[in-house]
Design a protein that fits this description.
By secondary structure, the protein is an all-alpha fold. The relative contact order is 0.19. Helix content is about 80%, strand content about 0%.
Length: about 140
Amino acid sequence: MKIKLAATAVALAAFSLPTLLSADDGLKYEDLVHCAATSLAVAQVLNIDDGTAKDTVTIGKMNDQAAALMAIASIGAKKDTDTVFADTMKEKTAIIDIFGSSDKTKSSAFIQNEVPKCKTMGEAAVEVLAEKKAN
């Protein structure tokens, strides 16, 4: 259900916003998809039911960031939302594999390096979309 919401948000943003990126922005499609997938993977991990209360606020923020990143990737790369969503889900599977890896140094390095970078990129994407919608 949450994935369908993210896909819907991507579709709506892609159709309702003017072009957000130019080639000069320095944002690569692969980086946007990677960070969208990272946000979704973190949300999925946080949503695992271990008998404790879920951090629904953080999960919601991560899903919102993923949707914003996918929208910007779709618009910037001029790719349809289905393609962006499929690429993101493929990348998310690879990230979940890293999280579940028996090599804890690999997962620890990913969490220390990639998660903060992608969180920052996701927050910026949410702000950009909010500004574009306000204008």
